[in-house]
Amino acid sequence: MSDLVFDLPDGTTVPVTVTRLLNAGYAGREQEEVAAHVAELAELGIPAPAVTPAMYPVAPYLAAQADSVPVQHGRTSGEAEWALVVAGPAPEDLLLTVACDHTDRELEVHGVAWSKNAGLDVLGRGAWRLVDVEDHLDELHLRAWVANEDGAEQLIQDAKLAALLAPRYWLDELAELLVPGTVLLSGTVAMLPGVDQFADRWRVELADASTGSTLELAYRVERMPEPIG
After folding, report:
1. Closest CA to 83 of 37, 142, 42, 123
2. Comparing 42-51, 170-179, 219-228, which segment has the lowest mean pLDDT?
3. Residue 159 forms beta bridges with which residues?
4. The three-state (H, E, C) secondary structure of the chain, written as one string
5. Cα dihedral sign, 112-216-169-89
6. Contact at 8 Å (CB) between 105 and 77?
7. What are phi and psi of 36, to 5 degrees?
8. Residues paired with 142 in a beta bridge
9. Does the 2-223 domain belong in CATH 3.90.850.10?
10. pLDDT tens digits for 162-207?
11. Could you give the angle at the alpha carbon of 30 between the alpha carbons of 129 and 117, nearest 5°?
């Protein structure tokens, strides 16, 4: 389990003990484009899912509001996403926040579920109530930047939430799983070509132009010492 606290725009804080963590995959709203992406990944040796969209259970302790992510090697990278946090049983207890699924790309060729369980799911400290943004959810803007210690930030992901299946899709499809304590990550959007994803720092934001409000997270990627033995 993991204990998180979310700050809401009205000044209240909502504590959540994460007991179930789910990572959606291949969750683009245009599933024809998803199928083409699956074929591209297969050429790189990444196994295709049995169905799309896919869903991967992740160890709950990997949900973190962290400023650093420990990794074992240099081929790991983030994925900008939204996260649905089920803080209680009522509709107003459904929270939306920004997230970054830090994934082991070496393990991904052996199994996507394995790669998702090899790194943290970093979540923002701020959140919105889903009921407050659901009527304009598709217009929310998801962006991610990467940087190395000796360089400036580069934009690596940039899309509206209309590109992804909406939280309501998962609430309908997985109603029995979305009990209080559940956190569900949305799956990600395409990375921009020519940007090195294996970076030292990641920053992700989810912006609501209608209110001027932004949710943000940022973290360093920290290489662990080499194993002995």
Report:
1. 123
2. 42-51
3. 142
4. CEEEEEECCCCCEEEEEECEEEEEECCECCHHHHHHHHHHHHHCCCCCCCCCCEEEEECHHHEECCCEEEECCCCEECCEEEEEEECCCCHHHEEEEEEEECEEHHHHCCCHHHHHCCCCEEECCECEEHHHHHHHHHHCEEEEEEECCCCCCEEEEEEEHHHECCHHHHHHHCCCCCCCCEEEECCCCCECCCCCCCCCEEEEEEEECCCCEEEEEEEEEEECCCCCC
5. positive
6. yes
7. -65, -40
8. 159, 206
9. yes
10. 999 999 999 999 999 899 999 999 998 888 989 999 999 999 999 9
11. 65
Within 8 A by CB and 6+ apart from 26, the residues are 34, 37, 38, 49, 52, 53, 54, 187
Burial class (CB in 10 A: 0-12, 13-18, 19+), 96: buried
All structural domains of the chain with their residue ranges: 2-223
133 near 162, Cβ under 8 Å?
Answer: no
* Distances 142 to 86, 123, 188, 227 between C-alpha atoms, Å: 21, 14, 10, 37
Q: Determine the distance from the C-alpha atom of residue 128 to the mean position of all C-alpha atoms in its chain, rounded to a whole number.
A: 16
Structure tokens at 150: 């000796």
pTM value is 0.93
Query: For residues 197 and 201, what is the distance between their CA atoms, to the nearest angstrom?
Result: 10
Output the six-digit token pair for 3. Answer: 């204990």
Place of tokens 């920290």: 222
For the chain, what's the residue count? 229
Reading the block at residue 108, the tokens are 């991904």
